[in-house]
Amino acid sequence: MIAEKMLKLGQSGSAIRDIAAYADARRSEIGSENVFDFSIGNPNTPAPEKVKNTLIELLESSDSLALHGYTAAPGAMNARIAAAAQESERAGYAIPPECVYLTSGASSSLAITLAALVRPGEKVAVLAPFFPEYRVFAEAAAGAELVVVPPAGEDMQPFMAAFEAAVEDGVAAVIINSPNNPSGAILSEQTLRVMAKILKVAEEEQGKSIYLIADEPYRELVYGDAKVPFVPNFYENTIVCYSYSKSFSLPGERLGYIMVPPCVEDGKTVFAAVCGAGRALGYVCAPSLMQNMLAACADVRPDLSTYEKNRDLLYGELSGMGFECVKPDGAFYLFVKAPKGDSASEFCEKAKQFEIMLVPSDSFGVAGYARLAYCVSEQTAKNSLPAFKKLSELYGL
Ligand code: PLP
After folding, report:
1. What is the pTM of this model?
2. Which residue in 12, 58, 248, 352 is a FRET match for 163, CA 20 to 30 A apart?
């Protein structure tokens, strides 16, 4: 017999992967220059020079065991020290390296954290719009039930009364993601303060810890004077899940971490549960070559120039054509409202007529929008504008 839950998961597609596969097919049919593929968050920007050079130097060094051998399950100490230094700078106090558990990216950070903190049947709240894989990690890795908190309005900030109701009803954990995929919205300090107050009252009333899981793969990708606060400074029981996929443009190489800060109640026990969940899920250790790279590169920050130009161009031009867009403060996504009351999939199908690949918002927990991933080349962003113009004309905008 087969595990039904896993079979269902394997057979159900992902809206993002489906449209990315369609884009691939169109590229081979009509040439890549004629396809405006905004489907997937695969950074077009190359890895920073120091990261590239460090990897070359490492590969040319002869210490094969240190480069490619197993490390301790939470990671090699020099890499954990580097990640902890990055967190200490954000926290404003020293985060010991023993708080860091290196992983194969944010996906494994989230699956491990949820498996460690949530018991089967408990609830996990997410704020819509949310990264669709949260549902998979919560339901399949932790056996939890997902509770979706809707946004308050067009700016995609959480609807606080619904958040409070969900927390009062009983949740084991809440996942937040700021800057957000798919809207680019950042949770402000004020929003975090209100959420923290609601969570603390519920912890008191319910006599248990409620964990806030801060999924932060885009935290360095911010524009203008936008700031991403260090969440544990607002709410103690916060676990940070991080990834270098976007900041170092290395999504296929798989490196990230879980950070259980010293302010977490019974933090050492929580960390031990993280180690147990990592072990149970078969994450032996994070890729060694990437750990070695991190030990030398934790001070590297991404070059945002292409993302910023694409954001300004696409937000400005699409708004000018009559599309309603959420202005992104961070990440590399533009959330565009389906015009004239169309559903998200009707909008994305119409965009396809002009070879524009967008992802419908339904699996992100919000109806009537499309996600545009602008981590493409500046040329692709520019060349797509006539196609968007035709799409706007089709709608009579
Ligand atoms: N969380 C969010 C919000 C994401 O957008 C992504 C990837 O796009 C992930 C997690 C997973 O990232 P990783 O490549 O580190 O597994």
Report:
1. 0.96
2. 12
Residue of the nearest CA to atom 5 in ligand 1?
Answer: 181
Closest ligand 1 atom number to CA of residue 331: 5
Ligand 1: which residues within 6 Å by Cβ?
41, 105-107, 131, 177, 181, 215, 217, 243, 245, 251, 256
Angle (CA) 310-135-287 rounded to 5° is 70
Nearest to 167 by CA among 210, 128, 132, 136: 210
pLDDT band at 17 (very low <50, low <70, confident <90, very high): confident
Distance of CA 60 to the CA centre of its chain: 33
Q: Helices marked H in 118-241 — which ranges?
A: 133-136, 160-169, 189-206
Mean pLDDT of 23-38: 96
CA distance 33 to 30: 8
The tens digit of pLDDT for each residue in 80-104 reads 999 999 999 999 999 999 999 999 9
Is the predicted pLDDT of residue 62 greater than 80, yes or no?
no
Q: How many CB atoms lie within 10 A of CB 89?
A: 12
pLDDT score, position 30: 96
User: Is the bond into 150 cis (omega within 30 degrees of 0)?
Assistant: no
Alpha carbons within 13 angstroms on the beta-carbon side of residue 34 total 9
Residue with CA nearest ligand 1 atom 2: 131
pLDDT at residue 23 above 90? Answer: yes
Q: Which atom of ligand 1 is nearest to the CA of 243?
A: 15
Closest ligand 1 atom number to CA of residue 180: 3
Q: Which two tokens stand for residue 210?
A: 């409620």
Phi, psi of 154 (to 5 degrees): -65, -20
CA 226 to chain centre: 18
| Distance (Å) from CA 80 to ligand 1 centroid | 20
Peptide bond just before 129 cis, omega within 30 deg: yes
Report how far ligand 1's centroid is from the alpha carbon of 221 (Å).
Answer: 13
Whether 331 shows a pLDDT value over 80: the answer reads: yes
In this structure, are strands 256-259 and 238-243 parallel, antiparallel, or unpaired?
antiparallel
What separation in Å is there between the alpha carbon of 330 and the centre of ligand 1? 14
pLDDT of 153: 87
Quote the ligand 1 centre to 34 CA distance (angstroms).
28
Mutate which of 39, 135, 241, 246 for ligand 1? The one with the most ligand atoms within 8 Å of its CB, which is 246
The pairing of beta strand 173-177 with beta strand 256-259: unpaired
User: Measured in angstroms, how far is the CA atom of residue 105 from the centroid of ligand 1?
Assistant: 7
